Amino acid sequence: MVILPDGTSVSLRRTARARRMTLRVSRRDGTVTLTLPPRLPEAEALAFLEDRRDWLARALQGIEPPRLVAFGAAVPVEGRPLLLTPAPVRAPRIDGETLLLPRARPAAVTAAAFLRTLAQARLAEASDRHARALGRRFMALALRDTRSRWGSCTHEGRLMYSWRLAMAPPEVLDYVAAHEVAHLAHMDHSPAFWGAVGRLFPGYERQRQWLRQHGSSLHAWRFREA
């Protein structure tokens, strides 16, 4: 890890497959990674970063800065911000505009568990509904904290989703479920696939655009204690 003068953190990754240095910025969470050939001196990597300081600053523009999940933070739950509030409760509970959390436990741990449980329930229901409409069945459903995709579907019919979809508006989560279920019939992004998505979720383009514009804000939240 290298910390630049402006405070930007850059992860150094050495791999035998690298023939030259490559600098990448994740559009999801602003993570900066510099990939290096195995024997390249670190001094050359630092010089490379110095030469590309202006490019890096431009690449980071518009990306949400990291936000720490803690008591007092307003974390999105199904599209609306809820204030994480310590309370004498045994399990997380929504109360108006607040998410009450057990005060004796770390906020990040309980908030993440609450979102995972919520995502499991919402995505299972949506996936079942869309699968019935499509006339197909899926074999399993799993949740992960993925960075590169919101969901996936294997040839065996196994669905995987990001549990952070519980933070997005319900219609966005529903669209992602329709998208992945449509892959049960079409394992590509052909016109036939998008036609299936449109039948399962008419007007999906709006929700797809929401993820493009606001998805990085969901990944900006850091559940460091989770």
From TrEMBL:
GO MF annotation list: metallopeptidase activity
YgjP-like metallopeptidase domain span: 20-214
Statement: the UniProt record of this protein carries the keyword Hydrolase: yes
Top-level division of the source organism's lineage: Bacteria
Protein's UniProt name: Zinc metalloprotease
Keywords: Hydrolase, Metalloprotease, Protease
CDD domains (UniProt xref): M48_yhfN_like
BP GO annotations: proteolysis
Claim: DNA repair is one of the keywords in the record: no
